[in-house]
Design a protein that fits this description.
This protein has 72 residues and is mostly helical. The protein has five helices and no strands. The protein has a domain of 42 residues.
Length: 72
């Protein structure tokens, strides 16, 4: 891969599918009623994500909404 040829300033702000996947998983992880280890940096990142209107609208959906979505 030639990512090393892209300036760091551009790489830092490039959004990709790889960037999005952990954010959707975080919502599910923090919504489950389970015991978690202390991960304060991840919790702070998640708190910032939750403030974003697009994240609220497209990711923070109740589990019930997702049932049957893949049924063809």
């Amino acid at each position: 891969m030639l990512i090393h040829l892209i300036p760091t300033s551009v790489r830092r702000w490039t959004l990709s599918w790889v960037s999005l996947r952990p954010t959707t998983t975080l919502f599910r992880y923090f919504e489950m009623d389970i015991e978690r280890p202390d991960i304060s940096n991840v919790e702070a990142w998640y708190a910032r994500l939750r403030q974003r209107p697009a994240y609220q609208e497209h990711v923070m959906l109740p589990f019930e909404v997702l049932f049957g979505q893949l049924a063809y």
